[in-house]
Design brief:
By secondary structure, this protein is an all-alpha fold. It contains four helices and no strands. The mean pLDDT is 75.
């Protein structure tokens, strides 16, 4: 059961990279279209969202590695 939860957590960590993987596999422009949309946003809106995303992602991996360390 612990291995299944660990695999699930690792897969969750890969979710932010799915647009890049889809672009690479299917030769689409999803990443480019996302960038074009978000480039139109004002800077005061982009910076807090970027910081929140980075902190949430770092927290996720810290919690994952702590869970791995505790299970060993």
């Amino acid at each position: 059961m612990k291995k299944a939860v660990l695999i699930f957590k690792v897969l969750l960590g890969l979710i932010p990279f799915l647009p890049l993987l889809v672009d690479a596999i299917f030769k689409t422009n999803i990443h480019t279209s996302i960038m074009n949309i978000t480039m139109q946003w004002p800077l005061w809106l982009k910076i807090p969202i970027l910081i929140m995303c980075i902190l949430a992602y770092m927290y996720f991996w810290c919690a994952l590695f702590k869970g791995i360390k505790d299970s060993l």
